[in-house]
Amino acid sequence: AGIDPAAASQAVRVYSRFDVDRSGAVTLADVEIVRDLLGSGKIGGEWATELLGRCDLDGSGVIDIADLTLVLAKYESTVR
User: Fold this and answer.
1) Of 6, 15, 37, 64, which residue is least crowded by CB atoms under 10 Å?
2) What letter would DSSP give residue 43?
């Protein structure tokens, strides 16, 4: 089986898991998104949107203070 040249030439974009808005960098906007979604959780075992799922940084099923702490620490490490 060969590789389709068109498919092989497409770039793959890789984001930090802390870059919840997929801007290419962990910014204050990512911190604000997680903060605004605090308390959100899975409904019927699924996230309502992809963004909500990306904000659950610790995989607990709920966007909570632990997730906010993780994204804030990553943001702070990039602005020093």
Assistant:
1) 6
2) B
Structure tokens of 37?
């979604």
Sign of the dihedral defined by the CA atoms of residues 58, 34, 69, 78, in that order: positive
Quick one: CA torsion of 40, 42, 48, 50, rounded to 10 degrees? 90
Which distant-in-sequence residues (6+ apart) come within 8 Å of 3 by Cβ? none
DSSP 12-60: -----TT-TT-SSS--HHHHHHHHHTTT-B-BTTB-SSHHHHHH-TT-S
| Alpha-carbon span 72 to 26, nearest angstrom | 9
Cα separation, 50 vs 33, in Å, equals: 13
Would you give the distance in Å from CA 38 to the centre of its chain? 14
